[in-house]
Design a protein that fits this description.
Blueprint lengths: L2 H13 L2 E11 L5 E11 L3 E5 L6 H9 L6 E6 L11 E4 L11 H11 L4 H14 L15 H13 L5 E5 L7 H18 L2 E6 L2 H7 L2 E5 L6 E6 L14 H18 L7 E2 L1
Parallel strand pairs: 3-7, 3-8, 5-6, 6-7, 9-10
Antiparallel strand pairs: 1-2, 1-4, 8-9
Helix pairs in contact: 3-4, 3-5, 4-5, 7-8
């Protein structure tokens, strides 16, 4: 993406009506554990937003509420146009573990959401081939999960999420269990796909370095019950490649985000700060 195109996209994201709005969203489980405590958050169409916070702060719970997999105990989730829920296929979800069917091939795993949507294998074939190519797994369509590395299995999981051509892609710490080299490569591949496909992305991580490298906007959360402690717009140009990690600007943003995260985790931290 050129600098001019990136500037135009950033301006469009900044001024767009929210694709999704969370207002006062809270979640308390049956045993009385409060996971979220009143989250207000707008997600603009086409943006890349990262939820950053310590383990157990409610990031994954918030992602599941966005996806409609869990209902909030308080507050509301509203989509563009006022709908309470998105249409089928508008959300792709990538979990921390690939959760692939071990008895199915790569193409069989990717076909699953299309099969559930009622598409025949013949109808789905071009989209499966397209998804395999998008994640760089050409030549592995007939392979089984046991024959793939951890990074390749995660690529299959991403392909399965994007084969429905979603408007919103949700990723719950998808690279946390991978080695550092694979993780950095998948970070770059994810950004390439986001730039080319025009998704809205909400990404969960507890890595400051990963959040700064990926995001247009970082939402820092407090420990449980999770609240929004700070929001920061990351003023680094796209495309972002390995060399960015060596720059002073990247280091400065990592320090700033680390400071905001430390402040959010301090005793009695509350409220929302703009960045």
């Amino acid at each position: 993406m050129s600098a001019a195109a990136e500037a135009l996209r950033s301006a469009s994201v900044a001024t767009a009506a929210p694709l999704l709005r969370l207002a006062g969203v809270g979640k308390t489980y049956r045993r009385g554990v409060a996971a979220l405590g009143g989250v207000d958050l707008d997600i603009a169409a086409g943006g890349f937003v990262t939820l950053l916070g310590p383990s157990g702060c409610g990031k994954s719970t918030l992602l599941r509420i966005i996806a409609g997999l869990t209902e909030p105990s308080a507050g509301e989730r509203r989509w563009a146009g006022g709908a309470a829920a998105p249409r089928r296929g508008e959300i792709g979800f990538v979990f921390q573990e690939p959760t692939l069917m071990p008895w199915a091939t790569v193409e069989g795993n990717i076909y699953l959401p299309l099969r559930l949507a009622g598409l025949s294998r013949a109808e789905a074939a071009p989209r499966i081939t397209e998804a395999i190519a998008a994640v760089g797994l050409e030549g592995f369509a007939r392979a089984y999960p046991r024959e793939l590395s951890g990074g390749m299995r995660m690529r299959v999981s991403i392909a399965r999420a994007l084969v429905t051509r979603p408007r919103l892609l949700l990723l719950d710490e998808p690279f946390a269990a991978l080695d550092e080299i694979t993780r950095l490569k998948l970070n770059e591949d994810l950004l390439r796909l986001w730039e080319s496909e025009g998704w809205t992305v909400v990404f969960v991580t507890h890595s400051v370095f990963e959040s700064v490298f990926l995001s247009q906007r970082i939402v820092v959360m407090t420990p449980r019950p999770g609240r929004v402690a700070a929001e920061l717009s990351i003023d680094l140009p796209y495309p972002r490649e390995t060399a960015l990690r060596m720059t002073a600007e990247y280091g400065a943003w990592c320090r700033t985000v680390s400071e905001r995260l430390a402040a959010a985790m301090a005793p009695h931290a509350s409220g929302t700060a703009a960045g």
